[in-house]
C-alpha cells in the first residue's frame, strides 16, 4: 500500500508534523516501535501513581507554535496548570527562586543573592532580554526557521556569542565563580556545561525559561501526546504501534518508503524521520546510500549524553515542604559542574562519594491527579550519566540480568540518600520506586545509547544549520533536528517546520 508520507517515530515533532499533513488531506502513516505515542513526552502508571518523563512546558504561549497548537484546540481540550515559579536553585549556602514569565524578577532575586555583583547580573540579563525580544518577534506566525537562522548568521554580535563559551562570556563581567555557577544552572537542559556550550544558546535558553509562562498538563504528559495522536487519527491518519522500522528504502537516490523489522514494506512519496541523526542516516538509510559530504557530517555529529531518572511514590506529606516548583536544581556543593560533566562522560564518577547535581520535581504538588489521596510523587533526575557507566551497567550480550538490576537498586538508594538531606524522612516512606537508565530510554524511544537530546551544540563544533530537508530527496527530519535546540517546544517547532517544508513541494 502506498502513502503520501510515512513518519518514523511518534515523538512530539513526528506527531505534530503528521497531524498537520493529515489535516491538509494527505495520506499519512505513522510507525511507532512503542505501544504508546510520545517518545520522551510520556507518562506511565505504577500502583496508583502516575509518573511523567519530562518536567514543564515553556515558551508555548505565543508565536507560531501557540497559534498552531491553538488551531488544534490543545489549550481548550486539555487542562493546564500555570506554574508560578519556573525553578528553585538550592546550593549549600544560597537558595534562589526563579519566577516564571518574569525576567526582571529572576534578575532581582539573583542580585539579592549576589549584592556585590549587581552590575554583572544586570549586564547578563540585559543581553538575555534583548535576545528574548528578538526571538519572540521572529516566532510570530509566518516566520520560518530560515528567518530565525538568518538573524543568527547576519548579526556579528550573535555570531560572536555563538563562538564563545558561556563561561568565557560571563568572565567578562565577573570572576565570582559562584555567580557563574548560578547563571549557568540551565546547562543540563542544553546538554553541555558552561565551558563547552556557546553563550548564544544558554542566553537564549535562559530567556525562554525565565521570560515565558511555565505550564503543566493537569493529567500528565501522556495526555499531550495522546491528544496529538488523536487529532492525527481524526484527520484520517493511520498509526501502527509496536512497529519498528529497520530501513528506509532508497530508489534512484530518493527515499521511497520503509521496511519494518518484520519485513513488511510500505511505499510513500516522502519519508519523515523522527529517529536520531545517526540512526536515521547510518542505520536506516545506510552509509552506502549517503552522499560523501553528508556521511562526513554524520560521522562528526556528536549526540548528547543520557542520564538516570528515578520516580518515587511516597506517603510523605510533601506539601509541608517548599517543593512546589516547575523544577528544583539541587547542588550538593559549589564544585565546578564542568568537572562533574567530564567525570560522568569518562565514567570516572563515583555517584555516592562525588558531589553531584540533581533535578527534582514533585509533580503531585502541581496536580492532584498523579498520586492517591494523601500521597505524593517525586521525580529525581541525574544528568549526565554515560551509557558505559560501570561497564555498560553490566549488560551482557544485550541481556539485562541480575547484575543490571543490582546496579539500578544501588543507584536508586544512593540518590534517595542524597535527597534525604533535603527531604527528611523520604527514605523511610517510599511505596514505589522506578529507576530508568540509558538502556531504558534506548529501549522505549529508540534513541542511540539512550541520548536525551539528538545532538549537543559545542563551541568546538562548527555551526550546523538545523533543517527538515536532507540531501536525500524525499527524506525529511523532524523534531529538534529540524529546528535546533532541545526540549519539547523545540521538538514541536521542528514538527511545524517539517510540515511547511513538505507543503512547499
Largest sheet: 7 strands, mixed
Would you identify the regions where 5 or more consecutive residues have pLDDT less than 50?
none
- What distance lies between the first and last C-alpha atoms, to the nearest angstrom? 22 Å
Number of helices: 21
**Number of strand segments:** 19
Portion in helices: 40-55%
Mean pLDDT: 88
DSSP strand (E) fraction? 15-25%
**What is the radius of gyration?**
22 Å
Overall 3D form:
globular
Class by SSE composition: alpha/beta
What features would you describe in this structure?
It contains 21 helices and 19 strands. With 505 residues, it is α/β, with parallel strands linked by helices. Strand 7 and strand 8 form a beta hairpin. Helix 1 packs parallel to helix 12. The chain is globular, with a radius of gyration of 22 Å. The model has no long low-confidence stretch (mean pLDDT 88).
Summarize the model shown.
The protein is an alpha/beta fold and 505 residues long. The protein contains 21 helices and 19 strands.
How is the topology of this model organized?
Elements: E1 2-8, H1 12-23, E2 28-31, E3 43-46, E4 49-52, E5 57-58, H2 63-71, H3 74-77, E6 80-83, E7 85-90, E8 95-99, H4 103-113, H5 118-138, H6 145-154, H7 156-163, H8 166-171, H9 177-183, H10 187-190, H11 199-210, E9 214-217, H12 221-234, E10 238-240, E11 245-251, E12 254-260, E13 265-273, H13 277-286, H14 292-300, E14 306-314, E15 327-331, H15 337-345, E16 357-361, H16 363-366, E17 376-385, H17 389-393, H18 402-420, E18 430-436, H19 438-445, E19 475-477, H20 480-483, H21 488-504
